[in-house]
Amino acid sequence: MDEPIDGPYSGLAVLDLSQGIAGPYCPALLRQHGAEVIKVEPPSGDWIRIMGGGEEGMTALAVANNLGKRSICIDVTRPAGRGVLETLAKRADVLVENFRPGVMERLGIGYEALSAVNPRLIYVSITGFGESGPLSHKPATDSVLQAMTGMATANRDESGRPRRIGLYVPDTITALYAVKCVGAALYARDARKQGDGRGRHVRISLAECCAAFQSGPILEDFLFAGQYKPPISVPSGVFATRDGHLVVATLRDSMWEGVCRALGREDWLSDPRFSTREQRGRHEKELTTAVAEILRERATADWAALLERHDVLCAPVQNYQALRDDPQMKHMRYFGAAQQHPYGEVPVPHTPGTPRDGVLPAAPLAGQHTREILVEAGYDAERIAELERDGLVVQAS
Asked: What single string gives the DSSP state of each residue in 9-68?
């Protein structure tokens, strides 16, 4: 077992019954803040273990979203398997699940059933679209949520065609909101004066998290629908250079002056087409084209240095290797490392607000800690062997 992490959630016991990203990333973050997390997987393992390349079920997503957890495989579809889970739930502070509405109740391990044996249990249910309504039983994936919640529209290309953002944004932000909800529920249970020591059922959905995350753009769309809205920043965006790409953001008129001087186009300062932010917005296409032609002439590093001297916001477009090698990232120790089976040492970004010392705990194989966890829960060797023979639990080989 990995060494305990000393953090504000030290001593907190979490059961993670979720699969994929939106569910598992929440307990993974709790773990990085000190919680003990047991990942409860079906005998076949979390489906994220087959998403993408990897060995022994250790895909990149499986590793990233399960660092530091211990894993037990239980068949909770059978009564004896549910009994094992109930035993674990009696000792837990938090349980996280992300099955479709009604599934946990049909299995006999919903909130009402488990809170009856552990009234202090905080039970987090993550659904796609909510626990009721016309879409409540619709499968929810990252792409589906980006499409339905306006994210793909917000990320449309120059022709107006919607595009999926190339990251798992709905899943990730849902996990972050879930962590926030767990903290609030723990405070209500244990800290505030009127707290009664009881747990509660926390329900959140990917759809509502996506909407909340976009509250500013949604309000802007309501207030200014059908009206011309000048871009916040022109010229702005990703520009090709002689050897790569550069992002430029011209947020204020003082930065516009810096752009003109850095690019050697002081004549633009007296050009009425570009005299104000609104005017630059109305002539965005021609201005952006002109800037792009100039930026192609020199290397990224040259332009970055020149623009920064004129107080213009800019940055080179980096890949992940360049990010890991970035001097600022190294100085702040934003990346740590985990000794991850079967790969050896792998780079892992530190969770913000956590210590940056030592080796980060690794992610488990499916069922890696089954026997260990059962022994801790009071099962003797004979009963564990019986559960294994019956296929109710699985220990990784």
From this structure: TTT-EEEE---TTTTTHHHHHHHHTT-EEEEEE-TT--GGGGSSSEETTEEHHHHHTSTT
**Helices 253-262/300-309 angle, 10° precision:** 130
**CB neighbour list of residue 170: distance below 8 Å, 6 or more residues apart:** 22, 142, 145, 146, 149, 151, 206, 209, 210
Listed residue (69, 72, 50, 71) closest to 61, CA to CA: 50
In this structure, the strands spanning 236-240 and 201-205 are unpaired
Token pair in block for residue 101: 């509405």
Q: In whole angstroms, give the CA distance from residue 174 to residue 149.
A: 13
331 is written with which tokens? 């100085």
Q: Take residue 332 and report the two structure tokens written for it.
A: 């702040």
354 neighbors 379 (Cβ within 8 angstroms): no
Does residue 4 have a pLDDT over 70? no
Query: For the chain, what's the residue count?
Result: 397
- DSSP β-bridge partners for residue 240: 245
For residue range 218-255, what is the model confidence (pLDDT) as tens digits? 999 999 888 877 788 999 999 999 999 999 999 988 99
Residue 168 has pLDDT above 50, yes or no: yes
Is the bond leading into 316 cis (omega within 30 degrees of zero)? no
Domains of the chain: 13-216+334-394 (3.40.50.10540), 236-318 (3.30.1540.10)
Q: Residues 120-141, buried b or exposed e (16+ Cβ, 10 A)? A: bbbbbbbbbbeeeeeeeeeebe
How much of the chain, in percent, has pLDDT values that exceed 90? Answer: 90
| E strand residue ranges, the chain | 13-16, 36-41, 54-55, 58-59, 70-74, 94-97, 122-127, 201-205, 236-240, 245-249, 313-316, 335-340, 344-349, 393-394
Q: Are residues 52 and 59 in contact, defined by beta-carbon separation less than 8 angstroms?
A: yes
Measured over the CA atoms of residue 253, residue 255, residue 260 and residue 266, the dihedral's sign is positive
